[in-house]
Amino acid sequence: MAGLVGKLGRFLKSPEGKRVTQQAQRALKDPATRRKLTDAVSKFRGGSGGSGGTGSGTRTPR
Description:
Protein name: Antitoxin protein of toxin-antitoxin system
Organism: Kineococcus mangrovi
Oligomer: single chain
Largest sheet: none
Region (Disordered): 1-62
Structural class: mainly alpha
Number of helices: 3
Low-confidence stretches: none
């Protein structure tokens, strides 16, 4: 795993990595993009953003 972290660090310091980082920062300033990202993360986690329901982090013992 340390190799992956090192590769990521080298990429972020490269000209292409800096470009990608700046592009992501600009995109996150846009409210519509932030909303899409928040919705995608919520779907990935399995919740609707509210309390309870699925994605609450509790498991039922078998």
